[in-house]
Amino acid sequence: MTSLQSDTVAVYVRMVNGLCQRSGVDINVSSLAECQPMLFVQLYESILGEPLPNGIRNPLTRSDQVKNCQVLIDRLSKDILQVDLSHIKSSSIVNGDQKSICNLIEIFAGLVE
Hints:
Layout: H1 6-23, H2 37-48, H3 62-81, H4 90-94, H5 98-112
Helix pairs in contact: 1-5, 2-3, 2-5
């Protein structure tokens, strides 16, 4: 799992909170560990104005979370951005890998610009 310096983490925490505020997602995080897959699903649905296709509405297991994350990454990669996002692994997001979470935050920041 990749760990980042605390000042870098703080930048991304502010960034994700700004994304939530701008997109109407009523979540405020204090750490990257709080950036769970459902947060990214909510950002996706709020920013793009559509439900995540083939997503599991109430993920109960780690496997459900990984699947949702992979559906999200694939959708962003193939249908929205049309760029390779293979460097972002759904299991890494679910496992709390800071670098992967930051990569996904950057992608959402680009969507709202």
